[in-house]
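Trying the structure run again after the queue cleared.
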Amino acid sequence: MRWKFNRCIIIILISIICIHSDELSTLNEQFITTYVRARDHLVSLISPLIICNGDNIILNYRGQRFEEQVIPKLYHDLKTISHIPFKIYLTLMFNTGNISENNSIELQRYLESIHRIRKSLHFSNDSLQNQYDIIDLSIKYLEGILSTKFVHENQLRKFCQQAQHLFLSNIELAAQLHLDLLDEKVRVWYYDRFNQTERDELKVVIMGPKTARHGFLEKTYFYHLIGEKKEGKRIIYVENADTEEKALEVLGVWLLDAEAGATFFDGDTERLHQTYLVMQPKDTSSDCLKNQKKIYKRNILMKENLVFLCLKIVIYFCFRYNSTNILFIRSKYICRSVHIYLSYSNHQSIINNQ
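Done. Tokens:
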């Protein structure tokens, strides 16, 4: 009877803890639901909104959607030719010296592909010769290393430096083609469709597969067009967003945090975009950092006391009553307690070494 009574007490205590935790989780889920609803509503109000997504730009304007291509096929063709020496370098960069059998087969097939491409090039007269020069340089280098089955590091570097003088012309031409077509499409929207209020409220989302390079073309173009010096207020670059919907979610989060920051922090739209330490005055930031070690130690000690209190309770009931169920509980909780204690010891050693 006594064991049943004690077991009931333990179950009740655990239930209270679980219910408390579930209530907090439910409360947080309610916040997230409200936040997402507010975010999506804020995005729905944005007009005009320009989205740069790959080869196309999209305009959401007064409830309508317009889409235009701003990167022509010639842009990709120029990049493809420019990538020929880059592909050769990537294949050999970790394989200087004797060429492996796999690389030899791969490069032989690539050489055959280059020969076929050379016979079917379709470029304008002012850029055609540069494509021939890139291809011929690559063919000559590949034939040389495939005949000797050996790659000299200095010769590979010399080939790459010769190639970069040629493909830089392609890169400049491709960028100019992109810029001209982008400007042609955007200016019609910006000057002919938008009124001055809409021009002042325009938001731009630029999607990209990775972090934007310095001087990224589309960012630089819109900086100059709408008079912004940095992204954040009206221009947002979103990396690794594979869909337009995900990019708009990032935009919505950024704008909603700016709106909330202005309300909670007396007009400071940047406040919720900052970390805790940036929010602090400079004279208190260093003090905050100095106190981290003390705070961390105190938290660890509090956790240790809680762990060993639970451990004492578990061990008491495990050894006070001897049954199959209790033996199972004993092994389970002792192993867990040992794991927690080892984790604590690891944390403590880190603290002592700081």
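The longest strand covers residues 56-61. Worth checking whether this holds up in the mutant runs.
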